[in-house]
Fold this sequence. Notes:
Layout: H1 3-12, E1 20-24, H2 28-31, H3 40-44, E2 53-56, H4 58-64, E3 73-76, E4 78-79, E5 92-93, H5 97-102, E6 107-112, H6 119-136, E7 140-144, H7 154-166, E8 171-175, H8 180-185, E9 191-194, H9 201-214, E10 218-221, H10 223-226, H11 231-244, H12 248-255
Bound molecules: ribulose-5-phosphate.
Amino acid sequence: MDWGMKNRLSKIIKPKDGRTVMLAVDHGYFMGPTSGLEQLDSMVNPLLPYTDTLMLTRGALRNYITPTVDIPIVLRVSGGTSIIGKELLHEGTVVSIEDAIRLNASGVAYSILVGAEFERDTILGITQYIDEAERYGIPVLAVTAVGKEMKRDARYMSLASRIAAELGAHIVKTYFVSEFEKVIESCPVPVVIAGGKKQPEDEALKMAYDAIHAGAIGVDMGRNIFQSSDPISMIKAVNAIVHKNATPKEAFEIFKGKKK
Length: 260
Ligand code: 5RP
């Protein structure tokens, strides 16, 4: 792995503890004006002090985030479907590696949909993108999205995560499931968890805690932060779990503003 790739990975995954709090606000590429992100800049800017890495689309980056921002970017580079289309997440490349470099991305994110009838398109898509990204030392985060019909269990997440890693992804983002340690044990690259649909803050914090303690290196969380009743307190609480080994109870106290 060349110096550049290692340096970019160290911006995404913090060397001090090998962990990361990635704020995912890339939802607009298939959800449009997602609830909570209607004015993406006013939502995101106050969260940045507690964020290690920002995951978003090139359009969001160019239109909502100032170029003077001091935060590593993981750029969403796959897409092609919408929530009202027939084949959600039947994705392909929507951002060239040259544009990702021009936007000074520290990494790129590409979704695969293992088990879908169009899985081959997404798997070949990420593989070709990994080849291009490797040429420039840009790490690829594989997003193992989960289609409606896919069973969310350790067997599925292990399959999807391991396929992504075998094809060359540098980081895998998947969903927390019971027996998550099995997913971690069978994936040779770092794993972060998506937050998934909005759930009560204490449950989301417990999920983050359990994922970290099963071996995930952090989170790439979106809706459970920006759709929270108090996004700033929520990302502070998530940050405490990821970087300060806070318990779910301690983190929930932080969320409620009772604990520094
Ligand atoms: C959607 C994505 C999102 O970045 C990912 O799902 C994380 O966001 P959330 O925590 O809201 O699930 O890649 O395909």
